[in-house]
């Protein structure tokens, strides 16, 4: 009995002791500018109780002993402030709002920070904590540690994120079409011709301020998403004058210094441009019918206007090079503070891969190969990027910004394919000589107005342009009887086709004009420091897209001699062979009217949302967004402008975000939102695009309609310290009419289109941990940070009994799925699990930094199959990166990076036994039933970077 009584007594005493504490919270501002100060140290004098101010200048001190206390507030370049006689009452919260004065002019060597930081890990964690929707993010500080080269590499460190083709982002395993991407709060256009995707490799990492990924909806966010809304923020304005220059040299085993075949695109290709002679001469007839109505000799005359640039040459692949120049300036024009930030990036990189490609007959016998190839694929890529931002701070209540981003990327890809069509008993040699240019320009003018202490208004006027060119993509195929010892002969069909000898030209231009306005009013609530707010805004956008493609194929004129067809690729299409005379070659135009289209997308949205505080712990954010969208698609068919699509839809999108504060460091969140997923213009356009690497046709579907999604998220989050977080998130998504790829039931080859399924669902759980050891006794542990996140996801799509789509002739009709395709399967691109982990070490005294990073995404459907063609899965790859850097005298920095240390293979395998996974069929005699379709390795990647800073000058306010 005595131990029990003693235990109860101790419990009572501890409860009484704990009850004799209160809290102190408040806001710290600059006395001159009235702006919030981030990173101030606030402590209770004579104790170990302390905190730092967050991104809004707020702080909270918990478990402060009841009584009269002295609060001390300090900040670099500001006068330390002591506030005596602060009364702390048991169980209550005391609020302090105060301001700090700048130090005297004698401290000229110290930089005065008048702008709140947004690019540090603490700032991003604080921002995420204060956002109403569920969000995760990554800061420029963490990106610098990981030495990721572009936004695609950096964002895969974020929970629930995976990457496809090193540039496309999947959120919670959902395809790229289910994401909305914004740069500086403006929606970006799709950068791809054949899919709705934003290519994240366009954005170099050194211009990033932070990236925030919203995973639940809110009225202020665009409603066209299911995976998430990704906001990319570029650097805004510098805290001090600086000039940095960085140079990187890269080495990739298996690529660098090896000999490879490539084709010539002219001297300007190192800048991402191409020669004028690689465009279609303006004298060519504009329509295929007019061109083909000419006689063979006349058409051959036009063909000779195209350069004979088919020849390949051997090159020794040089190391990769990257150059970055960053400049920041701040100065005053009268009473106006002016800031400028300029970043220039250039890179020239190389990638070689030996790709094993197999196509199977998929009959009753496993591993029955139809075609087998070895693809020697060499790509040379260039990137030229410029960021140029100006900020004019006229007074604390009005700031004007002009931001411009330009990126030009090109890829010179040469593919030499050797193999067999086993079923026909022929050897095959094929070539693809492709040059692709992608460019994006975004410029915007924005204003931030503080109408009063409680009201704000901001606006953005923006213009963006994206373009993609494929000038003179040359494709050729030669074959011979297997084991005949005869030379290869060119395959010259009667009519042009995408596989055999021909030339393809395409141009995409998209112009986007946007106008955005947001108003916010705060209703003071000093008791709980969580004021009620109401927000309202509008978003207007018009996109105009033009796409045109031309395809020409060589033809035989009478009986072409074997002397011509057996010539090598560099001479067979020479002028002396392309004569249009009997025994020679001529040219046919294989272009169809539908291969060119004009698309217009008009989008308008308005929203209102407000906070409702139910006591000091529960906050509700209610919102409603209304979106109107019109999609128009036109094409000239038989010289008549025809509307293929003209569809308007209004989408009401309610949302609710609830936050319950268990205490100052722990929250429970619940979110609901209704969102949509609209078809992209390309997905509606009824023309066929040929993917040479996969030997597949992709065709649009004008009958597509908008999908709707119901989203529910629940999250527990714990913030032990300002730069630590532990969170667990569960989510459920229900789709109606989801848009998915569909494999057409064709007799020969692969043909894909896009269809609306009946329904789908997606649910899972995400776990994130960030752990630091700031209070450890070991200096090594104090400099160490561990980051890890994992996502486990399940999805299922129900196609229904029939789907509506085109065949390869363009006819729209229903497909009865009986005996064609399984009615249920996982969503395409949906990984069942995603894992990221990293250990970061940074010693501020010695200047050493190091990190080890790990990433893996589980198997996912790469290409949807049917009963005749099994589904193809992209298998999981374990990726490990190591980065080390050292700073000398605060001016020199050397970085060593080793990426993809394990060099695991990229493996694409088809599910032959249709069990929804890749494995072995034990019923066959040691035969692998689930067969490899494509397998290759990219090789490890080693980079060495040197950065020099030309000094940093003090800025006097």
Summarize the structure.
This is TonB-dependent receptor. With 957 residues, the chain is mostly beta strands.
Descriptive report:
The protein is mainly beta and about 950 residues long. The protein has 3 domains: about 20-100, Immunoglobulin-like (Sandwich), CATH 2.60.40; about 120-240, Beta Complex (Ferric Hydroxamate Uptake Protein, Chain A, domain 1), CATH 2.170.130.10; about 290-450 and about 460-955, Maltoporin, Chain A. Helix content is about 5%, strand content about 55%. It has a 22-stranded antiparallel barrel. It has a 5-stranded mixed sheet with strand order 8-13-14-11-12. Strands 3-2-5-6 form a 4-stranded antiparallel sheet, with no helix packed on it. A hairpin with a 2-residue loop joins strand 11 and strand 12. The longest helix is centred in the first third of the chain and has 18 residues, at about 1-20. The model is unreliable at about 1-20, about 105-115, about 920-925 and about 955 (pLDDT under 50). Keywords: Cell outer membrane, Membrane, Receptor, Signal, TonB box. This is TonB-dependent receptor. Belongs to the TonB-dependent receptor family.
């Amino acid at each position: 009995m005595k131990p029990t009584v003693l235990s109860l007594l101790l419990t009572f005493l501890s409860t009484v002791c704990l009850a004799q504490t209160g809290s102190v919270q408040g806001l710290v501002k600059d006395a001159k500018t009235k702006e919030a100060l981030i990173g101030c140290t606030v402590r209770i004098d004579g104790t170990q109780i302390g905190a730092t101010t967050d991104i809004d200048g707020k702080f909270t001190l918990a478990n402060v002993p009841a009584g009269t206390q002295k609060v001390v507030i300090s900040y670099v370049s500001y006068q330390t402030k002591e506030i005596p006689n602060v009364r702390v009452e048991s169980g209550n919260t005391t609020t302090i709002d105060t301001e700090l004065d700048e130090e005297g002019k004698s401290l000229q060597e110290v930089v005065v920070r008048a702008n709140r930081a947004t690019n540090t890990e603490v700032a991003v964690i604080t921002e995420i904590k204060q956002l109403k929707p569920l969000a995760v993010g990554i800061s420029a500080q963490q990106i610098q540690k990981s030495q990721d080269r572009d936004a695609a590499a950096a964002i895969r460190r974020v929970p629930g994120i995976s990457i496809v083709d090193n540039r496309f982002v999947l959120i919670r395993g959902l395809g790229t079409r289910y994401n909305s991407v914004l740069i500086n709060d403006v929606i970006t256009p799709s950068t791809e011709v054949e899919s709705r995707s934003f290519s994240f490799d366009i954005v170099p990492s050194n211009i990033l301020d932070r990236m925030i990924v919203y995973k639940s909806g809110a009225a202020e966010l665009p409603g066209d998403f299911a995976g998430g809304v990704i906001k990319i923020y570029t650097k805004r304005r510098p805290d001090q004058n600086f000039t940095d220059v960085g140079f990187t040299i890269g080495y990739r085993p298996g690529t660098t210094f090896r000999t490879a075949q490539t084709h010539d695109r002219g001297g300007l290709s190192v800048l991402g441009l191409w020669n004028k002679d690689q465009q279609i001469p303006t004298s060519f007839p504009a329509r295929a019918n007019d061109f083909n109505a000419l006689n063979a000799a006349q058409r051959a005359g036009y063909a000779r206007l195209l350069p004979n640039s088919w020849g390949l040459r051997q090159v020794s692949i040089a190391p990769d090079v990257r150059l970055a120049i960053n400049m920041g300036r701040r100065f005053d024009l009268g009473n106006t503070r002016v800031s400028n930030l300029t970043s220039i990036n250039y890179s020239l990189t190389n990638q070689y891969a030996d790709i094993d490609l197999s196509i199977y007959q998929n009959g009753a016998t496993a591993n029955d190969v139809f075609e087998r190839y070895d693809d020697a694929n060499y790509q040379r890529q260039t990137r030229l990027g410029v960021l140029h931002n100006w900020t004019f701070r006229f007074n604390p209540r009005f700031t004007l910004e002009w931001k411009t981003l330009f990126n030009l990327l090109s890829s010179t890809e040469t593919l030499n394919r050797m193999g067999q069509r086993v079923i026909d008993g022929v050897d095959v040699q094929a070539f693809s000589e492709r040059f692709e240019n992608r460019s994006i320009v975004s410029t915007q003018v924005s204003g931030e107005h503080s109408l009063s202490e409680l009201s704000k208004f901001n606006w953005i006027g923006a213009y963006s342009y994206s373009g993609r060119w494929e000038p003179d993509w040359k494709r050729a195929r030669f074959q011979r009887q297997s084991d005949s010892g005869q030379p290869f002969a060119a395959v010259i069909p009667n009519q042009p086709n995408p596989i055999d000898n021909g030339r393809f030209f395409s141009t995409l231009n998209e112009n986007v004009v946007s106008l955005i306005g947001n108003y916010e009013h705060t209703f003071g609530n000093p008791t709980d420091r969580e004021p009620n707010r109401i927000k309202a805004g509008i978003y207007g956008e018009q996109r105009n897209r033009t796409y045109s493609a031309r395809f020409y194929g060589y033809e035989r004129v009478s009986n072409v001699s074997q002397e011509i067809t057996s010539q090598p690729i560099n001479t067979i299409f020479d002028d002396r062979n392309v004569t249009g005379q009997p025994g020679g070659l001529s040219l046919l135009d294989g272009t169809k009217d539908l291969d060119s289209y004009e698309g217009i997308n008009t989008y308008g949205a308005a929203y209102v949302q407000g906070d409702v505080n139910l006591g000091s712990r529960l906050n509700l954010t209610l919102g409603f967004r209304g979106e109107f969208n019109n999609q128009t698609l036109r094409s000239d068919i038989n010289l008549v402008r025809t509307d293929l699509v003209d569809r308007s839809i209004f989408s009401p999108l309610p949302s609710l975000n609830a936050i319950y504060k268990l205490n100052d460091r722990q929250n429970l969140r619940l979110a609901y939102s209704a969102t949509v997923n609209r078809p992209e213009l390309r997905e509606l356009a009824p023309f066929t695009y040929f993917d040479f690497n996969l030997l597949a046709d992709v065709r649009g579907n004008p009958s597509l309609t908008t999908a709707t999604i119901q989203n529910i998220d629940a999250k527990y989050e714990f913030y032990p310290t300002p730069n630590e977080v532990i969170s667990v998130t569960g989510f459920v998504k229900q789709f109606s009419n989801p848009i998915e790829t569909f494999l057409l039931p064709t007799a020969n080859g692969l043909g894909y289109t896009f269809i609306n399924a009946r329904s789908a669902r997606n649910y899972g759980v995400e776990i994130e941990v960030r752990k630091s050891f700031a209070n450890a006794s070991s200096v090594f542990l104090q400099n160490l940070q561990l980051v890890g996140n994992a996502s486990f996801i399940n999805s299922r799509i129900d196609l229904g009994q029939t789907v509506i789509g085109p065949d390869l002739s363009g006819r729209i009709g229903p497909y009865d799925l009986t005996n064609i395709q399984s009615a249920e399967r996982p969503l395409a691109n949906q990984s069942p699990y995603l894992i990221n982990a990293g250990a970061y070490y940074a010693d501020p005294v010695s200047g050493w930094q190091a990190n080890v990073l790990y990433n893996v995404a589980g198997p996912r459907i790469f290409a949807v199959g049917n009963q005749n063609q099994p589904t193809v899965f992209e298998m999981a790859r374990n990726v490990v990166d190591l980065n080390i850097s050292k700073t000398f005298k605060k001016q020199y920095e050397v970085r060593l990076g080793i990426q993809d240390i394990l060099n695991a293979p990229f493996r694409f395998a088809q599910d032959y036994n249709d069990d929804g996974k890749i494995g072995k069929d034990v019923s066959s005699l040691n035969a692998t039933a689930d067969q490899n379709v494509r397998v290759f390795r990219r090789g490890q990647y080693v980079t060495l970077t040197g950065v020099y800073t030309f000094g940093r000058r003090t800025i006097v306010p």
